[in-house]
Design brief:
The chain is mostly helical. It has helices spanning 11-24, 28-42, 46-60, 67-89. The chain is built from four helices and no strands.
């Protein structure tokens, strides 16, 4: 059995953890350890993140965008974001 340690957690977050564990029929410890493991697996450099995204796209057969396609998509999204912001403002 692994050594156990104690830590402090925000009371509101702890209640959410307890509620979710109860919904899933799991222990708080199981959920907390799983969350920490997932976080640790996903942390890393930006280059590592982009590499994982690229690998995932290749596995799903998604063709990468050309630089021109990527730029067009980015500009379209920027315009959409600005339209939404203007609509919310007034």
């Amino acid at each position: 059995m692994a050594d156990k340690q104690h830590t402090e957690i925000d009371a509101v977050l702890l209640e959410e953890l307890r509620r979710r564990a109860n919904e899933l029929g799991r222990t708080e410890t199981e959920l907390l350890e799983e969350a920490v493991r997932r976080y640790m697996d996903r942390s890393g450099t930006l280059a590592e993140l982009l590499e994982r995204v690229d690998r995932g796209q290749k596995e799903r057969g998604v063709e990468p965008l050309s630089e021109e396609e990527a730029m067009c998509l980015a500009v379209e999204e920027q315009h959409a974001w600005r339209r939404e912001r203007r609509e919310r403002a007034g």
